Automatic annotation (TrEMBL):
SMART domains found in the cross-reference section: AAA (SM00382)
Name of the protein in its database record: Metal ABC transporter ATP-binding protein
Organism name: Halostreptopolyspora alba
Top-level division of the source organism's lineage: Bacteria
Disordered, as annotated region: 1-22, 236-274
SUPFAM superfamilies reported for this sequence: P-loop containing nucleoside triphosphate hydrolases
PANTHER family, sorted: IRON TRANSPORT SYSTEM ATP-BINDING PROTEIN HI_0361-RELATED, METAL TRANSPORT SYSTEM ATP-BINDING PROTEIN TM_0124-RELATED
UniProt cross-references to PROSITE patterns, sorted A to Z: ABC_TRANSPORTER_1, ABC_TRANSPORTER_2
Lineage: Bacteria, Bacillati, Actinomycetota, Actinomycetes, Streptosporangiales
Keywords: ATP-binding, Nucleotide-binding, Transport
Basic and acidic residues bias: start-end ranges: 245-258
Family: Belongs to the ABC transporter superfamily.
């Protein structure tokens, strides 16, 4: 897994037409019991973009994210994913959702490797054994997040930050080229934050679309060319992140030469789409 991929639709020299946006949200309203939490938002997320959806508590970030994942219905408006209306979208393997926390898992002591392998469910047919290619993708994903040496450990032995890296590895091991990460930095120590920021940076470098749902840009700020700030269910800012609400705490730089815990990690392959 060493292919360096270009950003799809970004070169400007390609004679083929640009792909449709990874997400096109048009006048979206999402309500709970008739009360709107997202109130008429419109934006595109282009293929290959890394952007943050920012905003204070209760501003509607999670509600918008869940609508984009097809979990919450729209009261009004439209969402298209890779050119397909959400209700007709079937290619969910393309979307790598990284939740905030590992769920308790019913007390079953899953290993790190088992959790990461579960990211391949949508790409495997049922009753088919893992191929050597599947296993290699899991190895690469674990190496990319710096957890190759923890593969056999129970996830419950890992710190919160390491568990977050397992969740990212799970998304990396699958066929996704579009990632939605819910507060990937919350409750994570500085070392793990740097490791995670580095993984996210390399995903973007390799052409993935990355949407980060965050309270504040913090250590991810250097990765962002764009932030979309919600306030009271509406877009308060859509543009470069500098100086907008929620961007003020950038203590850690992700591309640090001072990240000894993340030595030579393999590049992350993102499936190339026609
Ligand atoms: N299941 C629900 N039922 C009713 N109201 C809800 C529900 N979930 C969220 N809300 C309300 O919708 C609004 C937006 O909440 P949402 O969780 O989307 O905001 P958020 O920006 O993600 O906040 P946080 O950062 O705290 O997660 C809030 O007023 C919240 O109280």
């Amino acid at each position: 897994m060493s292919a360096e991929l270009t950003r799809p639709g970004r070169s400007g020299t390609d004679s083929t037409s640009a792909p449709p946006p990874a997400f096109r949200v048009t006048d979206a309203v999402v309500s709970y019991n008739g009360s709107p939490a997202v109130r008429g938002v419109s934006f595109d997320v282009n293929v290959g973009e890394t952007l943050a959806i920012l905003g204070p508590n209760g501003s509607g970030k999670s509600t918008l994210m869940r609508a984009m994942l097809g979990v919450l219905p729209l009261t009004r408006g439209r969402i298209e994913t890779h050119g397909v209306p959400l209700r007709r979208f079937r290619d969910w393997g393309r979307i790598g959702y990284v939740p905030q926390r590992l769920s308790a898992g019913g007390g079953v002591p899953a290993t790190v490797r088992e959790i990461v392998t579960s990211g391949q469910v949508s790409r495997r047919r049922r009753h088919r054994w893992a191929t050597s290619q599947d296993n290699a993708a899991v190895d690469d994903a674990l190496a990319a997040v710096g957890l190759a040496d923890r593969a056999r450990d129970s996830v419950h032995e890992l710190s919160g930050g390491q568990q977050q890296r397992v969740l990212i590895a799970r998304a990396l091991a699958g066929p996704a080229d579009t990632f939605i990460m819910d507060e990937p930095m919350s409750g994570i120590d500085n070392e793990n934050q740097r490791a995670l920021a580095d993984v996210i940076a390399r995903l973007g470098d390799n052409g993935a679309t990355v949407i980060l749902v965050l309270h504040e840009a913090g250590p991810l700020r250097p990765l962002l060319r764009r932030s979309l700030v919600l306030a009271n269910g509406q877009i308060a800012h859509d543009g470069p992140p500098n100086g907008v609400h929620g961007d003020e705490h950038d203590h850690v730089h992700p591309h640090a030469e001072d990240t000894p815990s993340m030595p030579a990690v393999p590049s992350i392959e993102v499936p190339r789409r026609a």
